[in-house]
Structure prediction request, 380 residues.
Amino acid sequence: MDFDLTEDHLRLREMVRDFARSEIAPNAAAWDRDGTFPAGAVRRMGELGLMGVQIPEAYGGAGLDPISGAIVVEEIARADASSSVILSVNNSLVCNLILKHGSEEQKRRILPDLASGRKLGCYGLSEPGAGSDSANQKTRAVRDGSDYVLTGTKNFITTGSEADVAIVIATTDPALGKKGISAFVVPTDTPGFRPGKPEKKMGLHASPTTEIHLENCRVPAPDRIGEEGAGLKIALSTLDEGRIGIGAQAVGIAQASLDAAISYSKERTQFGSPIASFQSVQWMLADMATEIEAARLLVYRAAHAKTRGGRYTREAAMAKLFASETCRRATEKAVQIHGGYGYTRDYPVERYFRDGRITEIYEGTSQMQRLVIARGLLGE
Ligand SMILES: Cc1cc2nc3c(=O)[nH]c(=O)nc-3n(C[C@H](O)[C@H](O)[C@H](O)COP(=O)(O)OP(=O)(O)OC[C@H]3O[C@@H](n4cnc5c(N)ncnc54)[C@H](O)[C@@H]3O)c2cc1C
Prediction:
């Protein structure tokens, strides 16, 4: 067993860290305050090969491994959680889904633009009545000649208002239940495709989250991904990928909060000493660092399990569960260490606290991760 990253991983981490420090972190507070979509940063991430990290070069991606994918998300999240979720969705839930389940023609036609950041993708699984219960799809896809006609509403879609391409999960045969659901790739300029207004959220202000309305949206049959009826399986196995990304995002936000807490605790003086000299503050820092390290290792382990091949559902669920709860505890401690200043927007920990909270909710809540892990343990 080797716990060290390879030379290639270390070089990638340094490159992404430098880029995120110089081009993303300085803008993150303003993007959060103004709700600005970071279009320039997304373009730059595309130029650097970060929007299709695991996509082979033949399809316009960087051709790197899943651990590289986790490193990229963590380093971007350390600078700005919003940018990291835009990147993570494009990588895991869109590009990797098409790579794994798409036809050769779909890969050649769609991946080069998405993997290079020239176009952006979003992933439409959730609906008002289908959150954790993702099989309860009400969006319909009705076959009509050589097309499908899609009608329904998706909600909480990351990048929904900015994307050029959407993965849409819809029911092709309600009588078949879970086995009557199919996946489609839909250009967002298709007539009848309309994003709603961005949600007003607690955090991730620079990452627009919108409803998507589909009204008689005509999609050619070759734009179905995989077999008819395989859509839910495709959507859920893709979430295994996504959970490694969200785990990495949580580690990045938690690491940023530790960085900020260490530096503040050395600067802030009370009772004639830096607060870092107080044991209660040191213990908070030590707990944060220990948990973050453990979360990072779980994320790498899940990424390694994906590299090895076969299923990695349990590893991904454990990584996402532990990393997201670590993120909550770490961001909360960082606010505490900043005292009253941590409760203001003068320091970034207030943003980390708000941004980090979502990692326990999207791509499966912590309760659903526990359910997945327990089902594995019980052999269900
Ligand atoms: C900012 C943001 C971005 C998002 N981006 C996307 C996206 O890009 N694409 C997409 O498809 N979706 C996206 N989502 C949706 C997200 O994945 C869902 O919000 C999430 O899966 C939870 O669904 P829900 O909100 O309907 O909550 P519900 O499923 O209604 O859950 C409510 C509560 O009940 C609990 N619960 C539900 N069922 C069970 C059970 N069986 N056992 C125990 N507890 C249970 C949950 O854990 C939770 O605590 C996003 C959401 C947000 C907020």
Summary: The radius of gyration is 21 Å. The chain has a mean pLDDT of 97. The CA atoms of residues 310 and 361 lie 26 Å apart. The chain has three domains: 7-120, 122-227, 233-377.
